[in-house]
Amino acid sequence: MSEQSEEAMLTYYKRLFPYGPYFRWLNYGNMKEHYFHNREFSFTLPDDIYIRYQSFKDEAELEEELKKMKPQKIDLGAVYNHRPKNHRSITNFVPMEKELVFDIDMTDYDDVRNCCQGADICDKCWKFMVVAVKVLDVALREDFGYQHLLWVFSGRRGVHCWVCDDAARALDQSARSAVAEYLQVIKGGEQQNKKVSFNHEHLHPAISRAAGIVGHHFESMMVEDQDILGNEEAVKKFLLMIPDEQLKSKLENAMLKYHNSVSRWRVFEELTANTGKTKRQILHLKEEIMLQLTYPRLDINVSKQLNHLLKSPFCVHPKTGKICVPIDPSNVEEFSPETVPTLSQLINELLELNSESLSKDGKSLKEYERTALNPSIQLFKKFLNNLESSWRHKRIIASDAKMEF
Amino acid sequence: MEFQSPRHLARRTLKNSSKLKSEYPHSLQLYSVPPSETIGLQELEDWAVERLKVLRAVERVNLSKNTKFSDDWKNALKNDLQKQNIDSWYKLSSSIKDEKMDEIICKTRQKDHVSHFLLRLAYCRTEESRRWFISQETDLFRFRFSMENSEDIRIFMKENKMNFQPIPDEEKQKILTKLIHAMSFNASKIDTVEYYKVPFTEALDLVRHRKVYLQAGYAYVPNDELVSIITAMFRSHLSLAMALTIRSLPELEDDHRIRRLLNDFDKRYTGQDFNALQNKFSGAAITPEMLDGLSKQSYPLCMRHLHETLRSTHHLKHGGRIQYGLFIKGIGLSLENSLKFWREEFSKNMDIDKFEKQYAYTIRHNYGKEGKRVNYSPHSCIKIINASVGPGENHGCPFKHFDAALLRQKMTTNRVPQPAIQEIVDLVTRHHYQIACQRYFEATHNTEVDSGIQHPNQYFIESQKILNGEVKEKPKGAHKVQTIRATLPAKVEKPDPTDENHEILSESFETSKQKVSTFCISNL
């Protein structure tokens, strides 16, 4: 099993981990007392030793502990009503708040991607993640009104989203599960071929918006890259999603007259455009199929539970050595997991650094700001600045309220 | 309500009807204030049993019918209650305004009030029973709500300070298309529909099913869906109250009569939990080698499918590992054997090291050896049917989660006779999943099941009994493994009126004032 060497991890925690911004994030402007101190951290140590319920007083204690323990992986849990460290001595130890989180993993796409399987990814299937980020980002912002979304590369083959708005962090379990289910469109296991069905005359605004986003990418990513209609077997598999037997055989005959994925998809589009209007069962067939193949596949248990742990941003992925860096959702197409800095690459960069370097305004730069990690840190800081402006606003309201009394 | 015990007549402590009337002005209750009057212990018991019957009826109807709260659903529930002679539970208001009617109705409302609080005590103790209770109570509330006329609803909302203001027409026109697209009813009605703008957290059920238009954290709720919001308030109110109830429970349980009453009620729901049941049928412990044989003979289809998937792909996703892992624990596979079984399969695909690190934990967790150290119970049919099953997953209930064609295929492979297959598929299309499973049992065992199938482990036990030629007679009074629901109205023995113990229970649900005299219910 490949892990990162202890020495490399020590260097990472000594010279590269962005303690300042990281603490600024989890401290949330200290708007609520002990918010940071009551947060659960979990560490994975070498040889898969897993320790839960760690908690730290402040940035300094966190830093000290990370340097001492050198965890291979850090998971973040909920903010509890007491210090997680003391959880054994407390009878009523319950999670109070946590970011609303989403976890999307490429392995859940194995039945719809033909380029790779399991842990492997390539540029072709990374597009599933691009679509996922786009669809969810807009839904969380427009429908739920959230503004502070931190998207993070999970280190190998997926993405995480941390919704950090005050209101989102305070959601209880049932609200979390309602949001997750609202965003979950694909339902059905291995033994169900059609996993997306809409029976109403109109598509819900959130669905038609998602279908619009998906439709934008569908031909290039599915019809071409994934070659979903590339051979007879693939066509048969595709046709399993057609609920109407008559239409199914009609499509089969027509599609097999053509010999590549793109023209077969054209046939499907033409035939369903005409017949679709008459039968309710196949009214939204094209959208249903596009969504079944490309709509984000959420691991909703992660989102539902308040105390569920999720790998922290700025972890080093133990297997790939890649840093779990933030992703800019407005620029997600530019992101490629291939170019994410790895720990060994960063350590090499450190070796080449001159002793001192100044930024344009004369301040001395942190070491991590002089490596390939810097753009990610800057992105994270941008996210933090937005987040902090919301506290400032709240503080003003709070102090105004006090004045009145 | 009549009083059968002479003691009740002797010490008539119930409030007179005019007082009752002011106490229960409305047929719908949010149960905010606990009852404080003195009520006979026998009566208390009777009322609670009745309420439990009602909640069971709600549960039954939920399982058998298609759309919840549709007219069919409501009629089915009414019929069920009528059959059991407890239809007064939904007749809580009346158009006939005379004194006698008023009295009956107020009495029923009181019964409703008191029994609700007693069952709260009985069902607050475990996460699962709390969830069950809250969910049935919420459905019952909604059912009753749906039968109120708009005037009554208006009064109810006003009394409970639920002030919703419809959005102005101007605002409605701006988002009209979105509203039309989000609604499930006929678009031509849109002009007459009023919309209420509420934070989405107050309309979770509508959000969950994408039944409302959402914008910037607000849900636009059409007036016929207001019930959903009010129901949600009822639910959150109740779940908060349940959390508080459990805190006062230790004090209450000092009274042994209450303790016995409550314990008993609790069991009436969960029945057998099938947790780590030893296999009494073969006499020998279950070993991994026996599972292939057992899966063909005695597994319900859901478990057989999981077993076969595991054997052929050497892997199951999380949901499948939990559902199947708990089941085999329930049929008597020890932790050691369980680890051995999973290890053997999984290691065909991965090295043993990876298995030990990533998967062994969950298995020990199932047996209560990790984490919270809860010895988890195998999942019941309800839980399995309601499970969310995603791509690549194999758990869930085949009768619900399989395409019909695949279900047919699977049953043909398992040598179910064709006529039975047809019958089962028909049942499935009508959403009778558990009855379908029962037919599957009957077809594969050539016998009838009188009690229905509620639990995969019950299925297994029934099957083993038949295969081992065990006489199906149950020892009197012993737990009836195959019935979860049917244990309900074990007739309560009437107390002997000469017995000194038969005092009236002076029952205040505020536990600090708890003064309960001796217990008078025997043989529950």
Automatic annotation (TrEMBL), chain A:
EC code: 2.7.7.-
Gene3D superfamilies: DNA primase, PRIM domain
Entries under InterPro entries matching the protein: DNA_primase_S, DNA_primase_ssu_euk/arc
Alphabetic keyword roster: DNA replication, DNA-directed RNA polymerase, Metal-binding, Nucleotidyltransferase, Primosome, Transcription, Transferase, Zinc
Protein name: DNA primase
Organism encoding this protein: Daphnia magna
Record-stated family: Belongs to the eukaryotic-type primase small subunit family.
GO CC entries: alpha DNA polymerase:primase complex
A Gene Ontology BP annotation from the UniProt entry: DNA replication, synthesis of primer
EC class: transferase
Keyword Electron transport applies: no
Cofactor(s) for this UniProt protein: Mn(2+); Mg(2+)
GO molecular function, one term: DNA-directed RNA polymerase activity
Presence of keyword Transcription: yes
Automatic annotation (TrEMBL), chain B:
Entry keyword annotation includes Transcription: no
UniProt superkingdom: Eukaryota
Domain DNA primase large subunit C-terminal, chain residue ranges per copy: 294-460
Family matches, as Pfam families: DNA_primase_lrg, DNA_primase_lrg_N
Cofactor(s) recorded in Swiss-Prot or TrEMBL: [4Fe-4S] cluster
Listed InterPro entries: DNA_primase_C (IPR058560), DNA_primase_lsu_euk (IPR016558), DNA_primase_lsu_euk/arc (IPR007238)
Record keyword Iron present: yes
Keywords: 4Fe-4S, DNA replication, DNA-binding, Iron, Iron-sulfur, Metal-binding, Primosome
Cofactor mode of binding and number, as noted: Binds 1 [4Fe-4S] cluster.
Function (record text): DNA primase is the polymerase that synthesizes small RNA primers for the Okazaki fragments made during discontinuous DNA replication.
Protein family (similarity comment): Belongs to the eukaryotic-type primase large subunit family.
Protein name as annotated: DNA primase large subunit
